[in-house]
Design a protein that fits this description.
Oligomer: heterodimer
Strand content of chain A: over 45%
Strand order of the largest sheet of chain A: 1-3-4-5-6-9-10-11
Distance between the termini of chain A: 42 Å
Strand content of chain B: 35-45%
Number of strands of chain B: 29
Structural class of chain B: mainly beta
Number of strands of chain A: 11
Largest sheet of chain B: 9 strands, antiparallel
Radius of gyration of chain B: 24 Å
Largest sheet of chain A: 8 strands, antiparallel, barrel
Chain lengths: ~250, ~350
């Protein structure tokens, strides 16, 4: 009991302080921006020999942000936003272990694929960020924090071609996969419901209403469910958001 | 202000700095090419996943007790015994290839046989394949079948492989039984039925876009083996009950037929066993302009008791060993349109004591 009281009393005191002084300490904003980046393994597996193309999708972010400013240089912020993240990549792999289903609902065929691969990721998240802000100058803020995202919708599609699969292991026979039409995949249903990560960024105030900002968001949880055997490595969201904020 | 831009840029570069790494050690442990110093015209490229290397020699002056193999293997792999070390090849010699990463091994059996008359009893069978996929195959390695492809498509969940031995033989221990079976959709390709077949040639690599291309017909046919004149043997046939077309529709009233034929075709000189080797496949075995002679049973229909067939080779072209090499195949299939995924579930062809009679030139 004593312990709980030790926590509750200061919190209540703090809340009271905030409420009393809140009128000009709270700041409400609309934030809009674009996400550029990649959903990628933290460390690219050595089986990936060449990345031949990377292209971002038009991935917008639109949200509401609330900031509590202290009397000093520090502030905290949170909010909620609809956060799209997406990109496409084509690469060349050598002897990459994978398990694919030949038949819908059938068993997995395991093997080692060498050839070309295209993967396309499109995700939409409901994101709640939480950051600490530090004012470094008249116009400048640095931010640092984390985020929690709920997956609203996700697609993870692609195809493999111009290659072969050795099955069930590298001593087995070859299955030739020549054209893109022969082997496509869709793992949208295997994207996790939640994504948690860290963020760091900077912000520049153009005037009292408009700000420009850039935030790098790095997912710490793989976007793929653990039981997805076809992609034998973790994939993390790594996106840089460029945006504008408007103080209400 | 500049220092903040530097700060942001450094984060950006951190974000995109996932670099490519050095290639991992190779996982493959294949013999890519097997030849002998003493017989430079003989060359063998094993099919991936098929570890039998068989040479048929016609020159009895070669001393097989002391031959020096020249073996090419996967990058980084090692082989034991080593390439270039003479061995006694009067019996089967076993070579073990280990992948560069040491995790995978392939055991190859190398055999040198003298050319024999083309008589095939289908008495001896063995089990081939790897992992969960183990399937029956004739011990005479000049014959192949598509069991491995079906094993992969069904992931080894096969009760009876479409091509298998049967003790219901005309003579000897076994005959070959071919049974058309229901298929499914594999890698998006609808295969309503798997027709069973056994043929002289090679199987693989499996071509996902066109399964008929996975079959490569033909074994080298040397001048010393003579001119093929008659294709004979014993067979039984029973059509399955329900005929499916390539769209998986039932074709009511249609009775299935098997197919029995032998084809002699020409290839460029000296390509056998090299990576320029020529074969016919399921798409052109009866239509290619390389065909020199065909012996084909016109109709292989319901035949409940063992019946002898004798089909003469009909020549379309002259044989000219000075300009070409030749390959000979023989094909038995439980559904004649099996290459087009048409056939009746349960159609069964049983074949025994096959002979391709040749005359000296």
């Amino acid at each position: 009991m004593v312990r709980i009281r030790c926590i509750i009393i200061p919190v209540l005191f703090l809340l009271a302080q905030i409420t009393v002084r809140s009128e000009n300490r709270f700041e409400h904003r609309i934030v809009a921006g674009l996400n550029f980046g990649a959903t990628s393994p933290g460390n690219i597996p050595p089986e990936v020999r060449k990345i031949t193309a990377w292209y971002p999708h038009f991935s917008s972010q639109l949200g509401y942000c609330i900031i509590y400013n202290t009397a000093g240089r520090w502030a905290v912020s949170s909010g909620i936003s609809l956060d799209h993240k997406g990109m496409g990549v084509t690469n060349e792999v050598e002897h990459l272990y994978t398990e694919v289903r030949l038949e819908t609902g059938g068993d997995y065929l395991s093997g080692y694929f060498s050839g070309k691969n295209k993967t396309d990721v499109k995700t939409a998240y409901i994101t709640v960020p939480l950051s600490v802000r530090y004012r470094t100058g008249k116009h400048w803020w640095l931010t640092c924090g984390g985020y929690a995202s709920y997956t609203h919708s996700a697609s993870l599609t692609g195809s493999v071609w111009d290659g072969y699969l050795r099955t069930p292991d590298p001593t087995g026979p070859e299955i030739l996969i020549n054209s893109r039409e022969e082997a496509s995949f869709d793992f949208g249903g295997d994207v996790r419901d939640f994504d948690f990560g860290l963020s760091v960024g900077g912000e520049y105030s153009i005037n009292s209403r408009f700000k420009v900002l850039a935030t790098f968001n790095r997912g710490l949880t793989s976007i793929l469910k653990r039981n997805l055997k076809a992609i034998p490595f973790n994939m993390y969201n790594m996106y840089l958001m460029f945006g504008m904020a408007y103080r209400l | 202000m500049n220092k903040y831009i530097v700060f942001l840029l450094s984060f950006l570069s951190l974000a995109l700095s996932s670099c490519l790494k050095d290639a991992p050690e190779n996982v493959e442990a294949d013999v890519l090419n097997f030849s002998f110093e003493e017989m430079p015209e003989m060359n063998f490229i094993p099919e991936k996943g098929n570890n039998k290397i068989t040479f048929e020699i016609k020159d009895d002056k070669i001393n097989t007790g002391q031959l020096t193999p020249i073996i090419k293997i996967s990058e980084g792999a090692t082989i034991s015994p080593q390439s270039g070390v003479p061995q006694d090849f009067r019996d089967t010699v076993t070579y073990i290839v280990t992948s560069e990463n040491k995790r995978w091994k392939n055991e190859y059996k190398v055999l040198i046989k003298a050319i024999k008359p083309l008589i095939f009893t289908f008495d001896d069978w063995e089990t081939a394949g790897t992992g969960a996929i183990r399937y029956p195959t004739p011990s005479d390695y000049s014959w192949e079948n598509a069991n491995y492809g079906i094993g992969i498509a069904k992931l080894g969940n096969v009760e009876n492989y479409p091509t298998r031995p049967t003790s219901d033989s005309w003579r000897g221990d076994n005959a070959v039984l071919l049974e058309t079976q229901r298929g499914g959709t594999y890698f998006g390709v609808l295969v309503p039925v798997f027709s069973a077949s056994v043929f002289r040639g090679k199987f693989g690599p499996i071509n996902m876009g066109n399964f008929a291309r996975s079959i490569r017909f033909g074994q080298p046919h040397d001048r010393k083996q003579g001119r093929p004149v008659l294709f004979s043997g014993y067979f039984k046939y029973k059509s399955g009950s329900t005929f499916y077309d390539e769209h998986d529709n039932v074709v009511s009233g249609r009775v299935d037929e098997g197919s029995i034929y032998s084809v002699l075709f020409r290839t460029e000189k000296g390509v056998a066993g090299t990576d320029r080797d020529e074969f016919l496949d399921g798409t052109n075995i009866l239509t290619s302009d390389k065909i020199v002679a065909v012996a084909q049973m016109e109709h292989c229909r319901n035949t409940p008791e063992y019946t002898r067939f004798e089909i003469p080779f009909l020549y379309r072209d002259v044989i000219d060993y000075d300009r070409f090499d030749y390959k000979l195949t023989a094909v038995f299939s439980s559904s004649r349109d099996g290459d087009f995924y048409r056939g009746a579930d349960g159609s069964t062809l049983i074949v025994d004591e096959v002979e391709i009679v040749c005359e000296d030139f």
